[in-house]
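Deliverable D5.2: sample structural annotation.
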Amino acid sequence: MRLLLASQLAFNIGFYLVIPFLAQHLAEDLLLAGWVVGLVLGLRTASQQGLFVVGGALADRFGTRPVVLAGCATRVAGLLVLATSDQLPGVVVGTVLTGFAAALFSPAVETALAHEGLELERRGTTTRTELFALEEVVSRTGSLLGPALGGALLFVPFGALCVVSAGFFVLVLLATLRWSPRVPPAAAGAVPVLAGWRRVLGNRRFLVLCLLQSTALLAHNQLYLALPAELDRAAGGQAALGGLLVLAAAVTIVLQVPVARRTRRARPGRVLPLASLVTATGFAVVAGAAAFEPPDGALALLPTAVMVVLLSLGQVLAAPVVRDLVPRMAQEASVGTHYGVLASVGGLAVLVGSSAVGALLAPAGVSGPAASLPWAALAGACTASAVGLALLLRRP
């Protein structure tokens, strides 16, 4: 368990050490057009979220250890390609490899944590929900430390930054080789890839959960899409964006484990709808504020700060509960494939939903009903998700 958590921390530090600065490198160092930069970044997201289902199925088929090792090796290869490429084809190859690496690594780690958490739960040591809550804290800490380290190293060339990042994944690879138990796939309950996918497609209740819970990932994505646009309207610039993202991370780091302990006995049918309603409330606050001219000074940022806190609290409530619920709905079989499908459905929802939100944001730069519309739509989607989750999870 310690190895898994430490690996997740190192993986996130290495990832966020480079990715936040990739767009700047493409635009300023390689002089690529804006639409090309957007395409490259979109390919990274698609190769990650879209291929989670592949990584999860491979973890079920071959065991988590070899898939984690493959994810680390793929990320190292992708970063080294990015470090040495000054032409678009090489950049595309390196970007896709870095995305695919996460599609291998993340569902394998989630699957391993699910199995480890179930064993700890049977021993009475802790609950699996609390273990996933601790993993959320570790991941978010890595997402804070990575950009901070990358910002401190901005004086070095981007290629050198990629090499430093690759070093973290080499450490994870070596640690996994040294300390991860060698469990033969047969002993781990290996499931053929197609059989795992058939099991998931036959689990209609789980597929409905994926659709309803995809709004959570769409909501979280608005920290990077809709929040900057709202800051432009309310504050006339995005100077506060970094501080608000730190606030979101701080809420997760401080509250995640205590909230998981308080809700350990609560049914998912209560926690998940509540989480969606909390998120919907945050969006509704900004929808109401956007209809009017913003006040002067720091008060202009108050609605967005409230939204960030409530959005983060919704994630704190939902994330560990969902990650514990998935293997239970899968009856502890083909767990990696189920995690992969959940992530891929969420990625598709982000692709479709963010396109719609982006279209609504176009006229939202001026206070009034048009500025409220994207936030009201997001609040409505989360409310509908809450109702659907309450109905879906009425019975255990």
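Annotation notes: The two ends are 28 Å apart (CA to CA). The chain has a mean pLDDT of 91.
The annotation will be released with the project's public dataset once the embargo ends.
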